[in-house]
Every structure is written in structure tokens, then in C-alpha cells.
Write a structure and sequence with these properties.
single chain, four-stranded parallel beta sheet, alpha/beta, 24% helix, Rossmann fold, 3 domains, disordered C terminus, 18% strand
């Protein structure tokens, strides 16, 4: 098999570190029909014309080009081979500039390594087979897993480009974890307020017709290949007609069943038919079959239906369904989960009485949450551990909303849920009465 090797000196960027003549002697001594040519700039116009002419006059079976990164000029040399009448996939590039010349400690080491790489490329290219480009029909639609901040923004961007987007979310509301927090780092902004513009565009914007939201759903099966996937999505019934529901909450008030509220870290109770949490969109309740007496006790409870002022809004007859969608790509934006603080023994989480951390109880930091005052009042003091990475330089120019103007080196004042009569104290503990506790050491 006849193989043509073209060695690029890249001006003097490669030749200063790698001895091309020494590599020529080693390669030609290996036997076989190997031609070795040294070119200053094969990626330039003159170099490309030289290679094209050489390939026409002395057509080889395979080509090896030792030059820079394939990401930079592989398509350049493939085009040269096409113009010379050769299959462009019978070529192997070797990156001797970025991976060898620029990083090797000395000329001898760089030459030895380049020789090994070029010999390996010669052996590899012998196994190349001619390939032909084919055109595959691809579906332009996209499936997005997760309706958090990343998933929603991706869906909106794709919809604006004219693509049909299907968003799969396992919860009955969109927004992800960010929608559950009243204050988010670094500017301590309201989570739902930050997401509201994007959520509004998703639900009611000019491109909403291109976005399909499948809530209380999960991906059951994905088959197919690149550009042509078939997704089977399992969706649980909401039992609420979101188009006609006016969110009057009469059904919630009438519901006699309750369950642990998983949307508030199991901290309080919710009704069997209820909102996931205030501020979540769509702002309509959902009926949980695992808590409702119609399914758990097999009776004919109709109190929510009787209390609803709008006909055909509560739909007991809805069932699980399997939705099938054809998509060309799948974007995974499933977000994150809370870390189990009990794995950090130094914090005392799960061991010390009343040991708690704000991130594990998102609704506790909400001023509108009924659980917040109860949680604060049952403790004499509340200590909030914070993470601090810059002990000498603050990470922001202005203090967060409601925080003191100056904070201790490694402590932050916990903000009470009711407005105090005086500015916040600077120690890391506060009293629910608003009075400053005795002095305590910094953390």
C-alpha cells in the first residue's frame, strides 16, 4: 500500500522543536511504499496547491498529514483530497503542533514522540475504508427533560427558532427548585419573580404554540437514532382542567383528606387536592390519587367537585396515559437535588434537637409561608450556617436585602420572619423576640 506523508513545519513553530529530517529517515527505513515530504505551510494556498498537484501526479492509496489540530484544518485537507480526485476519508491527521511541539520539554523528546505518533498514524490509515456522505432526514423537534430554569430557557430559545418543543416535568408545576426559594444567591432576589418573565413567555408568549408542557410526566422509553428518536412519555392524571380552573381554592377548602407536603420537605400537611406551593405555575391545583379518599378508601367522595363553581373542571375520569412523540434531539436538564446533610457529622443535622438548614426547608424562608413563623417561634434561637470562601474581600459590593451593613468575618445574621423593632444584630444568633442574645463566638 502506497502512503504519502506530508510534514508541516508551520513556518518554524514546529521545526524548531521537531527534527523533520530525522523523522524522515526513521519513517523511510520502516519499509513499505512511503513517501515523506516536508512543506512549510500546507494549509496555505501554495501548500494546498502543492499537495493537490502531488496527489494527482503520484496518487497514493492513503495520506497522512502531520500538522496542527484536526479541529483546525482537517476539513481543509479533505477538500484538497476531493479536488485531487481522492476519497477524503482515506486520510489521517497527526497533531504534532499543539500536542507535541508546544508542550514537549526538549527537541529530542519532541522528535521521538512525533516519530511514534506518525508511525501510529501510518498503521491506522491502512485500515481506513472509503466513505460516502449520505443525507438523513432528521426531525427538527426537541424533547427537554426538566422544566427548571435551564429547561425553560432552552425551550423558549428553541421555540423562538421555530422548533416544536416538548417539555417533560415530573412535578405539577414548572420552575424547578429555584421557584421554591424566596431569596437566591448572589443578589438575594425572589426565585419566582426571577422566573416569572420566562414562565410567562412559555405559557402565554408569542411562541407558546411551539411549546408543549407535559407535567406530572416521566420518560418511559426512548428508541431510535440521532435525529430520529421516538419518545414514550408516561403522564399521570391531574384531574383538573387547567383551561377552565379559576384557582378559587374552593375545592381545596372542601377537601377532607390531607397528606405530608413533599413540596415543603415533608414539613407540613397539604390537601389531597391542592396547589404544589404558592407562586408555582400553572396556578391551578392538582389531585393526588395517593391521598384522595376516592382512591385510598374506594368511596364516592365528591366534596371538591361539589364545591367547584365551574362545571367540568374537576375530572375524576382522567387516567394515566402514554404519550408518543417523534423528536430529533433530547436535552437533559433534570437539575439538582438536595444533599443529605446528615453525611456531614460536624453540623449535627439529624442528631441535635431542632438542627435545621434553610436549604432543606425552602418554604421556611418564605415570609408568605405559614410554616415559617411556627418554625421560628418554637426555637429560642436560630443559627444559620453559611459558606464563606473569601475571608478578606466581600463577594458583593452591597449587602443582601434585609441584612446588616457589615457582617462578621465568618457569620451572617439570620433574618427573622417578622420585622424587628430595630436593625438586625450582627452575631450569628438572634432571638425570636427581636432582642439581641448574649454575646457568642463566631463560627
Amino acid at each position: 500500500m502506497k502512503i504519502a506523508v506530508y510534514f508541516c513545519t508551520c513556518g518554524n513553530r514546529i521545526s524548531e522543536q521537531i527534527d523533520a529530517e530525522k523523522i524522515r529517515s526513521v519513517i523511510e527505513d520502516c519499509g513499505g511504499k512511503i513517501s515523506f515530504k516536508i512543506i512549510s505551510l500546507p494549509c496555505g494556498e501554495a501548500g494546498s496547491v502543492f499537495i493537490e498537484k502531488d496527489l494527482r501526479e503520484n496518487p497514493p492509496d492513503r495520506v497522512v498529514i502531520a500538522a496542527c489540530s484536526p479541529r483546525k484544518h482537517e476539513e481543509t485537507f479533505r477538500s484538497v483530497m476531493v479536488r485531487a480526485g481522492m476519497n477524503p476519508y482515506l486520510m489521517q491527521m497527526v497533531n504534532i503542533r499543539e500536542l507535541i511541539a508546544w508542550v514537549a520539554p526538549g527537541r529530542e523528546q519532541a522528535t521521538a514522540k512525533a516519530c511514534i505518533q506518525i508511525r501510529a498514524a501510518i498503521r491506522r490509515v491502512q485500515h481506513h475504508v472509503p466513505l460516502e456522505k449520505i443525507i438523513v432526514n432528521a426531525c427538527p423537534d426537541v424533547l427537554i427533560l426538566g422544566a427548571g430554569a435551564a429547561g425553560l430557557k432552552s425551550a423558549l430559545t428553541l421555540a423562538e427558532a421555530g422548533r416544536k418543543v416538548t417539555v417533560v416535568e415530573r412535578r405539577p408545576v414548572i420552575g424547578g427548585m429555584a421557584a421554591m426559594y424566596d431569596e437566591l444567591f448572589p443578589d438575594m432576589e425572589c426565585g419566582p419573580c426571577m422566573l416569572e418573565p420566562v414562565e410567562s413567555e412559555i405559557l402565554h408568549g408569542p411562541h407558546a404554540a411551539n411549546i408543549e408542557l407535559l407535567l406530572q410526566s416521566d420518560l418511559a422509553e426512548l428508541t431510535g437514532f440521532f435525529g430520529n428518536f421516538t419518545a414514550k412519555i408516561r403522564q399521570a392524571p391531574r384531574h383538573i382542567n387547567t383551561g377552565s380552573c379559576i384557582s378559587c381554592m374552593e375545592c381545596v377548602n372542601a377537601c377532607p383528606a390531607s397528606a405530608t407536603n413533599e413540596f415543603n420537605c415533608n414539613f407540613n400537611q397539604r390537601k389531597a387536592i391542592d396547589l404544589a406551593f404558592f407562586g408555582g405555575l400553572p396556578n391551578t391545583p392538582f389531585l393526588d390519587e395517593s391521598s384522595c379518599a376516592r382512591w385510598t378508601r374506594k368511596n364516592d367522595c365528591r366534596k371538591c367537585l361539589e364545591a367547584c363553581p365551574v362545571e367540568k373542571t374537576i375530572l375524576y375520569e382522567q387516567e394515566n396515559r402514554l404519550v408518543e412523540r417523534k423528536v430529533g434531539a433530547v436535552l437533559v436538564a433534570v437539575g439538582a437535588d438536595l444533599y443529605d446533610c446528615s453525611q456531614l457529622p460536624g453540623l449535627g443535622y439529624g442528631k441535635l434537637p431542632d438542627s435545621s438548614f434553610p436549604i432543606s426547608h425552602p418554604e421556611k424562608s418564605w415570609r408568605s409561608s405559614p410554616s415559617s413563623p411556627k418554625w421560628m417561634r418554637k426555637n429560642a434561637r436560630a443559627a444559620v450556617p453559611v459558606c464563606r470562601s473569601a475571608p478578606t474581600k466581600p463577594f458583593r459590593s452591597t449587602p443582601p436585602r434585609g441584612w446588616p451593613e457589615s457582617m462578621p468575618p465568618c457569620a451572617a445574621a439570620a433574618e427573622p420572619v417578622w420585622p424587628p423593632a430595630h436593625p438586625h444584630p450582627s452575631p450569628a444568633t438572634i432571638s425570636p423576640t427581636g432582642k439581641s442574645p448574649p454575646k457568642s463566638g463566631s463560627c
